[in-house]
Each structure stands twice: as structure tokens, then as C-alpha cells.
Write the C-alpha cells for this entry.
Amino acid sequence: MTPEPQRKAPTAPASDVRETRAASVWADARGIHHVRMKAVGRFTLDDARALHVLRTELSGGRPTPLLVDIGAGTMPTADARAFGRTAEAVALTRALALVSPSRAIRLLGNAALSLFRGTYPTRIFSDEGLALAWLEEHR
């Protein structure tokens, strides 16, 4: 049985935080992209495209592990979800860790993940440190 990864403190944003209407975005020293969603209600197709542009700039177009803090409860529209499944968007993600303190959001997320099997590993966590430890395995 594999031991549980040791919990790590949440990562503070880097000095080079970029902002979109719906999210704050940065890359840490390990090359993990962090997205902290803002409480804007709906995450639209325009928001998804703006986030994609920033992630492309940060990574130089190479795939990276991605941590998304969905604690703000912002929900993506159908067209934003569809954009996230395009080859262009998928090509930037090596693995995806979603973080939410809400048990209800994690339950809904896990149900959605069971219906959509992506091309990269995806998990939902309540603890950012555990999510980062998992993402480090996918760098």
C-alpha cells in the first residue's frame, strides 16, 4: 500500500500573477500552473479562451500540470466546457487537480469526471498540498 503524500502548505501566488476577468493565473518554480477562480458567476467561452492564452504564454505551448482552485463556486458554461475538451486546450495539460473545500462541489465534480474521461489524469481534492503532491507525480 502506498503511503499518503505528506500535506504541504498552500502555495502563495508568485509575483508574476496574471489576471483575467474570471481567474488569477501563475506558474510556480516547479512549472505547475495555478488557476484561482474568481466569484464571477459563470465561466464563459471568452473566459476559457483568455485563460488558454495566458497558459500558452506561461508554458511556451508545452503541456504542464494544472491546479485549479474552484472554491469560488464559479461554474463553466457548456461552450467553455466544450472548449476545454478541444485538442488545442488538452495539449496544454499534463494532469489536472481541482481543489475545493466544498464537499458538495467535490461530489458533483467526481460525478462529472466519471462521465467524462479526459486524455490526462484528473482528480478532485479538498487540500491544495495533497493536490500539489499528486501533480508533482505528473510533471
